[in-house]
Automatic annotation (TrEMBL):
Protein name: Protein kinase domain-containing protein
Record's GO cellular component terms: cytoplasm; nucleus
Alphabetized PANTHER family for the sequence: GLYCOGEN SYNTHASE KINASE-3 ALPHA, PROTEIN KINASE SHAGGY-RELATED
GO molecular function, one term: ATP binding
UniProt entry keywords in alphabetical sequence: ATP-binding, Kinase, Nucleotide-binding, Serine/threonine-protein kinase, Transferase
Biological process, per Gene Ontology: cell differentiation; signal transduction
Length: 32
């Protein structure tokens, strides 16, 4: 099961891990 787990799997293990796994979402506020 190693590799690139889905966001749902990460949420079950650690909801705070999403911020560390996908920092680019907040780092690139191009939508503004």
């Amino acid at each position: 099961v190693l590799g690139t787990p889905t966001r749902e799997e990460i949420k079950c293990m650690n909801p705070n891990y999403t911020e560390f796994k996908f920092p680019q979402i907040k780092a690139h506020p191009w939508h503004k």
